[in-house]
Amino acid sequence: MSYHFEINKGINDEFNKICLSKYNSVFISRVFVYSHYIKENIYSVSKINNEIVSGSYIVVKDNKHLLVLNKMTEISNEEAHELCKFLMDYFKDVICVKFELLMNRLNCDNCFCCYNNSDVCVDLPEDIEQYNKRLGSKSRQHYKYYKKKIENDFENVEFVVNRRYTEEDALFIDKLIELKDVRCEKNKVINRASGNIEAIKNISKEYGYLSYIKVDDTFACILLFYLVGTEFYFEQTAFDENYSKYSVGRTTLYWSIIDAIENKSTKFHFLWKGADYKNHYSATEYKLYDCYVFKSKGFDYHKLVLYKRIYGLLRTLKHSKIGGILNPLYKRIVFSINNKKKAI
Question: Which domain holds residue 331?
Answer without folding.
Answer: 300-344
